[in-house]
Amino acid sequence: MVLSKPFIQNTMDTLRIYWVLIRITVPIAIVTEVLSRLGIIKAVAPAFAPIMNVFGLPPELGLAWLTGMLVGIWGAVPLIFTLAPASTLSIADVTVFSALILFAHGLPLEQKIIQKAGPGMTVTTLLRIIGALVYAFILHQVLSATGWLSAPVHPAWLPASNSATWPDYFWDLGQTMVSMLVILFLLSWGLELLKLAGVLKLLMAALSPLLRLAGIRGEAEHLTAVGLFLGISYGAGLLIREAQSNRIEPRQIFLSCAFMGFAHSIIEDTLLMISIGADVHGVVTGRLVFAVAATAVVGMVLRSLSDKAFFQRLFRLNIVKAEA
């Protein structure tokens, strides 16, 4: 009975999240399909070409990334194979695009949460977008030079893709929404099992040396690890409380939020992207290495700033005090 309570709560939370996702994803997917059939996406795709060409990706996927940045990963995933059929993509393509999505998604909501912990919303949002662009570029260059992951992609899960007729499209969309619910339950229950078994706690402890390399120390280590495994809502949510109590130094809070911007929900979000064909080393190993290196660079910049410059440009104590 004791074990059943967390799972009942977890199930109810998942259903609430799913209902929110349905209300966002379905209208966006239908509008995207209408625009596609009218030829509008094909007409506007060249506008995304300058950016997407840098990563060797079809320009149409720029619309999916834009959707992901504004709405979140679950808003973008159903669009991917509608905009660019799986038959036209390689594993490298999906891995590079997944990197863009994993770094920069759901920015209005997630960055608002981070802002409440003190770091400026504009600068942390720019850090995530720049991080996405730099990492995806490096990844693309490595994969292009080596030919690694050049094989055609074969997704384990194929969200709604191109359908000949509207009835077929709505049937595929319905299947995608059902699959989404199943995946959400599997991920949320899996995380709950890892928490109950104490595995997450062990993983967080093992991560401490890695976070120290990034310049994150003390209590900020634990909270950053929480964000890495469970997401910004959890990690930054705890940081807000610590910021209000003045138990963590502001520069450490900023570093923690910067790291979480580069890498968070490392289990749930990553498994989702792997299910559509992304390579695990590209979306986990490389991303973690980049997050540590990039955060260390951010730390060097922070140490070079005076307190006046830091609190004027990067960190807002008045926001933290207002939330207290």
UniProtKB/TrEMBL annotation:
Q: Name one Pfam family in it.
A: Gate
Bilayer-crossing regions: 20-40, 61-81, 126-149, 169-191, 198-216, 222-241, 253-276, 288-306
At the top level of its lineage, which domain of life is listed? Answer: Bacteria
Give the Nucleoside transporter/FeoB GTPase Gate domain ranges. 19-101
Query: Which of UniProt's keywords are assigned here?
Result: Membrane, Transmembrane, Transmembrane helix
Keyword Chloroplast in annotation? no
In Swiss-Prot or TrEMBL terms, this protein is called: Nucleoside recognition protein
